[in-house]
Amino acid sequence: MRYQISGKQIDIGDALQTHVKEELGSAVQKYAERPTDAQVIFSKSGHEYVCEATVHLSTGLTAAAKAHATEIYAAFDNCCEKMEKQLRRYKRRLKDHHKERAEPVELLGASSYVLQSQGEAEGEEPETLQPMIIAEMQTKIASLSVGEAVMQMELSGAPVLVFKKEGAAGVNVVYRREDGNIGWIDPGS
């Protein structure tokens, strides 16, 4: 597994990098057969250290975890525990489905945009109805089953996941509802 360990405006020493590789490697190897790469980013927020970890699996799914603590090693250990818990749930769900994915997830290219919020005071009309694009990026849309999309959304900690439903044309969306349940938008039905 390839590791990319970095710090935002803080120095990451060799001892911490070794600790991250050993601990994260052993946690991920327990539950994922062929992880491809891991990205771990440390930063400081006020008096606390923040650790964000993302692990890409060979199936095409991605697991992400984030934790914070007053010490940098404790922040990583908390993050590693969250990652291990997610991967344990992922593996349990794979066993529950009684099927193995034979091929990696198919990814389709798409454009992703960040739009500027209007920032207008309530009750005022905006000058124009066209939003201003402040960032443009390329993203990938995975071809997944609905169950895999829900699993991917939970693994990544995202509130929404856009995906192409396997065996169907068009784009689907799964999202976390305010009542805690998962919603699924299928424009094909």
From TrEMBL:
<dbReference type="Pfam" id="PF16321">
    <property type="entry name" value="Ribosom_S30AE_C"/>
</dbReference>
<dbReference type="GO" id="GO:0043024">
    <property type="term" value="F:ribosomal small subunit binding"/>
</dbReference>
<comment type="similarity">
    <text>Belongs to the HPF/YfiA ribosome-associated protein family. Long HPF subfamily.</text>
</comment>
<dbReference type="InterPro" id="IPR032528">
    <property type="entry name" value="Ribosom_S30AE_C"/>
</dbReference>
<dbReference type="GO" id="GO:0022627">
    <property type="term" value="C:cytosolic small ribosomal subunit"/>
</dbReference>
<dbReference type="InterPro" id="IPR003489">
    <property type="entry name" value="RHF/RaiA"/>
</dbReference>
<dbReference type="InterPro" id="IPR050574">
    <property type="entry name" value="HPF/YfiA_ribosome-assoc"/>
</dbReference>
<dbReference type="Pfam" id="PF02482">
    <property type="entry name" value="Ribosomal_S30AE"/>
</dbReference>
<comment type="subunit">
    <text>Interacts with 100S ribosomes.</text>
</comment>
<keyword id="KW-0963">Cytoplasm</keyword>
<dbReference type="InterPro" id="IPR034694">
    <property type="entry name" value="HPF_long/plastid"/>
</dbReference>
<comment type="subunit">
    <text>Associates exclusively with 100S ribosomes, which are dimers of 70S ribosomes.</text>
</comment>
<dbReference type="InterPro" id="IPR038416">
    <property type="entry name" value="Ribosom_S30AE_C_sf"/>
</dbReference>
<comment type="function">
    <text>Required for dimerization of active 70S ribosomes into 100S ribosomes in stationary phase; 100S ribosomes are translationally inactive and sometimes present during exponential growth.</text>
</comment>
<dbReference type="GO" id="GO:0045900">
    <property type="term" value="P:negative regulation of translational elongation"/>
</dbReference>
<protein>
    <recommendedName>
        <fullName>Ribosome hibernation promoting factor</fullName>
    </recommendedName>
</protein>
<feature type="domain" description="Sigma 54 modulation/S30EA ribosomal protein C-terminal">
    <location>
        <begin position="130"/>
        <end position="183"/>
    </location>
</feature>
<keyword id="KW-0810">Translation regulation</keyword>
<dbReference type="InterPro" id="IPR036567">
    <property type="entry name" value="RHF-like"/>
</dbReference>
